[in-house]
Amino acid sequence: MNLMAKYEIIKPAPFLAAALAVSYFFLNLIYYINPPVIFNGITDEKIVALTFDDGPDPRFSPEIVRILNDYRIKGTFFVVGEQVEKYPELLKLEYEAGHEIANHSYTHRNMDSLDRTAVREEITKTNGIIYKYTGQDVNWFRPPRCKYDLKVKQEAKHQGMDTVLWTSAAESKKTCNPDEMALLVAAQARPGGIILLHDSRLDRSGTVRALPMIIESLQLQGYRFVTLSELLDRKS
Ligand SMILES: [Zn+2]
Q1: How big is the CA angle at 100 (ends 45 and 175), to the nearest 5 degrees?
Q2: Environment of ion ligand 1 (residues, CB < 5 A)
């Protein structure tokens, strides 16, 4: 049988479709076995997501929501389950204003130091509480202090979530000066960027003061703010 005859028997279109289906299956299998961690959105559009970890917290969350609402911006709150149990009205405040709610564990412990059952409990318990107050499933999990391993990524994936970190952080150990925080974020801005901020645990008054400057400096650069789900659904 010559080469041309072979091509006639194996019709290119069905063959290609089958090859693509097999590739897609294996890609999904690899993603399921070793899920990738997301650091940024893939886009050329000047869009970024502001993400707030550790809340809700009556000291800082209401003010952050007020600022976001004043600028008509939607942010994403990575909430801690224990905090939500203490302040469910703040979760509702965030959600009802149109902000996205994501999972930052139940106790804010280092996930890599827990066994698989405990990790699963941390994730599912927090998802359950979020669902109780919002009726929404959660798309994203961020492990506290960036402490994760394979089982943490897998457990998030098994609950239908991707593990998300960040592209740039506003706060640093070196400074809590609001001007410097705003300058740092503005300098590191890029299309598809995920920006890390906090609304609990430590004193976040610097973050609250920096937030309007961060928003305005990025807007001056032509950036638009979207939720994490909007950012990560976009492909250039
Ligand atoms: Zn945290």
Answers
A1: 75
A2: 53-54, 144
Residue type, 17: A
87 C-alpha vs ligand 1 centroid, how far in Å? 17
- Catalytic, 54? Answer no
Respond yes or no: is residue 53 known to be catalytic. yes
Q: Cα(197) to centroid of ligand 1, in Å?
A: 10
| pLDDT tens, residue by residue, 164-196 | 999 999 988 776 789 999 999 999 999 999 999
Give the model confidence (pLDDT) of 138-166 as tens digits: 999 999 999 999 999 999 999 999 999 99
Which residue's entry shows tokens 């952050």? 64
Which residue numbers in the chain have pLDDT < 70?
1-12, 175, 234-236
CATH code of 37-233, in short, is 3.20.20.370
* Residues contacting residue 88 through CB under 8 Å, at least 6 positions apart: 129, 133
Question: What are the domain boundaries of the chain?
Answer: 1-33, 37-233
